[in-house]
């Protein structure tokens, strides 16, 4: 109902963003190219590793599982590696990347700030705090939860932490002011500082084994990917990737300013709440299973915006595809570049993202001169 109110109240808005046929064609071809690159990257990632699997073998395995072929010449070992290790990891990378990419684009549009991301509203810091809290308390204090939750206690705790921190930021922004985007950012910065200090204190008190687990989790990894983790986050990421593009028209009008958008029929409070909730769903679930992965939600929307323009109806979809593509590439690099060891994926995204982000800022500055 709230989603309908947010989008359906824009009855007397300005005409949609004008675009030429060539611009529309550019957007379409860009999205098609992103899909094709994503498929190619997934095939490459599923084939590379200690046990190489060819594209024809991947096709044979998939066709056989669908019942379209009666037999396959792929060895049982390769089939096991493909179904149990490679495929769930690639699918998880796509889901996490899509959730981070589309959330970053939506939050940048909501706050009208090109450097906004989920970290500004407490999603990442809250998830990290609760994950470290569970690591510190250990299973002996969580015997009942550990008995029923098993290996998923950490993921559940991280997701709850992300949701609670974001909810706290939003409620405090309404108590301290009018709940505007600027107030949410200010409260978010304060809460992030508070949560960061608590996390630092807990890190200081941790023993060597706990500190090692905390460090590895905070750098991000898809090493523990399996079908259970894929199924666990899929509903949250799909809700985010389906729901946020429906708010694209309202986010376009918000570019004019909150007062102008409100005069044109946009439900500002409802829009703000829906964007934050949907972004938290995607990012919180992603951080819960993969740890803290930076720069995807920050850099990918910039790249897509420079290619297809600022129309959020296209930008959000493109950011989801771009985020999935970037994280699939980063994960392939992280597990192969130092094989048989594995490099945390957060290091790879930072090495790839930070120079590119600095280049974008430099380019924008030169345009203004």
UniProtKB/TrEMBL annotation:
Record organism: Dyadobacter jejuensis
GO cellular component terms attached to this protein's record: plasma membrane
Keywords assigned: Cell membrane, Membrane, Transmembrane, Transmembrane helix, Transport
UniProt KW Metal-binding keyword: no
Entry membrane topology: Multi-pass membrane protein
One Gene Ontology term of the molecular function aspect: transmembrane transporter activity
GO BP of this protein: siderophore-iron import into cell
Record-given protein name: Iron complex transport system permease protein
Record localization: Cell membrane
Transmembrane regions listed in the UniProt entry: 27-55, 90-111, 117-137, 149-170, 182-206, 227-247, 274-303, 315-337, 343-362
One Pfam family recorded for the sequence: FecCD
